[in-house]
Hints:
The chain is of the alpha/beta class. It has helices at 15-30, 64-76, 149-157, 179-189, and strands at 2-7, 38-43, 80-88, 91-99, 105-110, 138-142, 162-167, 192-197, 213-215, 221-224, 231-236.
Amino acid sequence: MNIAAIQLACSPRHRAAMLRAALTAIAYAGQDEPSPDLIVLPALFEAAHPSLGHDEVFEPIHGATRAAFAEAAREWGVPIAFAMAGWDGDRRIVAGVLLDADGDTLIVQPQMHLPQREQRGFTAGTQPIASASPPDGVVLLPREDATNEEAWNAAAGIGAKLIVGSICTAAAKGEGKSLKDLARWARRLGVAAVIAAAAGEDHAHNGIAQRTGIIAAGGKLIAHSTGGGTHIVTGAL
C-alpha cells in the first residue's frame, strides 16, 4: 500500500485556509508516482478554539468539508482520511473520517480520549472501528487518541492492520509522544501506522512538526517530516 501523509503548515483555527491548503496538498499527492492508495490529512479544525460553545462555528460531519474531500477522492481515485470537529446528528464530536475512492464514507470514528476542557462540550467515542472494505483493517485515531497507548491497544484488539492518526493540537507539556515512541507501540502490537500533523506556528513545540510519518508493522520508521512547513511524506507498507 502506497501512503501519502500530509503535514500542513496552517493554523487549524483558520478553517477556510486550512481547507484550501488540504485540497491543494491532495492534488499534489494525487499526481505523484506511484499514485497513493491512501492519503492521510491532519485534524483540520481545532475543537477548543476561542469560539467553543458557539454552535454556528461547527458544521455537520457530513457537510461541506466532507463533500469537498469526497470530490477530491473521486477525482484522484484514492481514499482519504482526515479528522474534524462537527455535528453528528444532535451530538457534537471530534471525529476521524475515512472516505473510499468513490467519496463514500467508510468510517466516522469519534475521538475516545477527549481533553478535560472538551469533555462537557463533546461526546466521546467508546470503542474503535475497523474498516471492512478497501482499504480494510484501518482504524482511525483522531487527535489525542493518536498518541494514547490505551487507544492503540484497543485498535490492535479489534484486528487493526493500519492505525491512522490525524493530529491537530500540540500535546501538553510533558505529554507529547514522538514518532519513535509510536514506532515502539507499532512493533509491540504488530500494526503499521500513519501519522499526519498540523504544523502551524502555534504547533512548533513538543516536536509536533516532527510527528508526521509512516511506520511499518515491525516498528521501522519508513519516512517522516524533517521540520515545519507543509510536507507530503510518502512510503510503501
